[in-house]
# Entry
Amino acid sequence: MTTRDSRRITDLGTLKAFGHPLRMRLYRALCVADADAATASQLAAQVDEAVSLVSYHLRKLAEHGLIEEAEARSEDSRERWWKVVSRRITFRDRDFLGEPERVAAHAALSRTMLRQHVGMYEQYLDEHSAWEGWWESAFSSEYLPKLTPGELAELAAEMRAVMEKWEERGRAAVAEGDTEGRESVALHLYGFPFRSSGG
# Structure
C-alpha cells in the first residue's frame, strides 16, 4: 500500500485510538522517520518509553489502519518496521456533533494535540541557543482578521495549499539526496472565532 497524503477520521473508535498521547507522539515520529519507517526500538528511544509499551501502542494504531508494517530496512528479521498509512490525519467538528460521547472524545483529542503542540514549542524555546542558523527563520505570529465562516474556510484552504506545496518540496529534495541543513519543522495553525470581553 502506498502512503496517502491525508486520512479523515470520522468514526469514534479510530478517534479514541489516535487520541492517546503516546500514540500521537509515535505517529508524529513515524511521519518524520528516516526512510519513512522505524522499528519499535527506534521509536522507544525517541519517546523515552519501554519497547514493549511502544510495540503495544503501535499495534493499536495498526488495528485502526493508521499505520502498517513496512518492508524491513535491516537484516534483523526479529523486529517489525512500521510506517504511516497517511501523512496527515484530519478530523472535523461536524463529524462528531450530536452524541455526547463523540463530542467529548473530539474535544479530548483536540486538547491533547494542543498540549503537545505547546510542549513542542516550549522545547524549542528551551533549546533556542542550540538552533543557531534558525533564529531568523522560526516564527510565531497572531493575526486577528474579522471574517465570516465562509471566508475562514477559504483562508484555511489557501493555507493548506501553501503548506502542502512546501511539504512536497521538502520530500522531493530529500528523495534527491538534498539533506544538508534540513530539519523537521513543525507548523501549528489554528483558526477559530472569539469575542473580546467587551463583546
Remarks:
- The longest helix spans residues 100-126.
- The first strand starts at residue 4 and ends at 8.
